[in-house]
Amino acid sequence: MATASDKRKPKKTAAQGSKAATRARQAKSQAAIPAPVAASAPAAPPRAAKPGLPHGIILGVLLALVVLVSVEVVILMKDKADRKRILRVVEVVPERGGPPDMPGKFWGPYQVKVNEQAGRLALVDHAFNKVVLWDLATKKHVVDVNAALLGREQFVPKDVDVADDGDYYILDHSDMTVKRFSAQNQLVQQWKIPESVSLTAGKDRDVYVLDGRAQEIVHYQNDGTELGRFGKGKLKNGLLMDTDEAGNIYVVDSGYNGMVVFSKAGKHLYSWPIKEVKPLQMSRMAAVNNQVYFYDLVNNNGIIRVYTPKGRLAWDIGPQRTESFDVGRSGTVYMSGNDGIVIQQIEK
Fold first, then answer.
1. If the chain, 348 residues long, is cut into consecutive pieces of 10 residues, what is the mean pLDDT of each piece?
2. Which of 41, 85, 153, 190 is most open to solvent, judged by the fewest CB atoms within 10 Å of its CB?
3. What is the distance between the alpha carbons of residues 290 and 308, in angstroms, rounded to a whole number?
């Protein structure tokens, strides 16, 4: 039996039921569709590679550098080999040793000087305070200049040089004078000088002394007349000097650690460092045949180095140990050695 409530509900028609079913299916279908996903940002383009040389070119450059360095090393070695010279002993003047009063003998060589034109070889012996001279042709002893010969209580020779005419000049520190001797070994002139450290006899009877305190060169005639002074401001600590056959004066300067060159008239020509030897301490030097022969007793490894007047290294001679040496115009080297004066030729 139908109740009162059932009577109040409207009855669905067939068409209404069909529409309801359709709407239900559509809702279900839409629920199954996933929600749209937000679009992601586009990917950044790949970075471009930095420009550079291909590996092959880099390797080629490195190889070229290696070859260049190798070539430079070979050139340096060849230059060093081309500069190398040796000394061949020709003769020895066997005058080293003996008691102090024995003529012609020496113990402490300080300076060796030769003049082949005058035919004289001279040596300052600091051990016995004398100057020894030999005849260059015969190698025979000529004279010892000492206090006894001069009739003096003291004689302290510092330097000696022989001029082309055979006269020789001695720098005497006992009374700070230059003493001029004739070729016949007679004292003919002497004159007072400043506190000097070196002496050299130049062309045309010129005599130069190196004033160690004022650091300048004093120019004299061979009779002691002063002709002028030069080098002030160009020298720092001049040690010794020599003249070449053109009359140019060369000064070894330890303050500058190099060579300072002046003309015969006193004009400054060149200054150049001695790069191979530092510092200069006990140096010896000879200027002849447009070359400068240099040796340092302390820092030279026994090598005599030969330079052009402008300072280019030309030869390395040695090794050879010596206290002093000089070079004649013939190119012959006269060197103090253990047995006496060693006379040697330069060979390649």
1. 47 52 56 50 56 71 70 52 89 88 90 96 95 96 96 96 97 98 97 96 93 97 96 96 95 95 96 90 92 90 93 93 94 94 95
2. 41
3. 7
The three-state secondary structure class of 17 is helix
Angular region, 311: left φ>0, alpha ψ -120 to 50, beta rest: left
Rounded-to-integer distance, Cα 229 and Cα 217, Å: 6
Question: Running DSSP on this structure, what letter comes out for residue 43?
Answer: P
d(C-alpha 155, C-alpha 125), whole Å: 11
- Cβ-contact 92, 337 below 8 angstroms: yes
DSSP single-letter state for residue 96: B
Report which residue type is found at 206.
Answer: D
Residue 117 has what pLDDT? 95
Say which residue the tokens 């025979």 belong to.
140
How far is residue 7 from each of residues 10, 16, 49, 236, 273, measured CA to CA in Å? 8, 19, 86, 141, 136
Taking only Cα atoms into account, the Rg of the chain, rounded to an integer number of angstroms, comes to: 48
Integer Cα distance of 330 and 328 in angstroms: 5
Cis peptide before 319 (omega within 30 of 0): yes
Q: How far apart are CA 300 and CA 297, in angstroms?
A: 6
Rounded Cα distance between 250 and 287, Å, is: 7
Phi first, then psi, for residue 183 (nearest 5°) are: -60, -20
Length of the chain: 348
Cβ atoms of 262 and 270 within 8 Å: the answer is no
Q: CA-to-CA distance for 161 and 287, rounded, in angstroms? A: 13
Q: How far is CA 92 from CA 51, 108, 140, 210, 312, in A?
A: 74, 17, 12, 32, 32
- Which residue, 159, 167, 245, 162, is CA-closest to 203? 245
For residue 309, what are its two tokens?
């007047």
> What's this model's pTM, rounded to 2 decimal places?
0.78
Chain centroid offset of residue 234 CA = 19
The C-alpha atoms of residue 297 and residue 302 are separated, in whole angstroms, by 7
- For residue 239, the SS3 value is strand
- Residue that is written with structure tokens 């004689």 in the block: 155
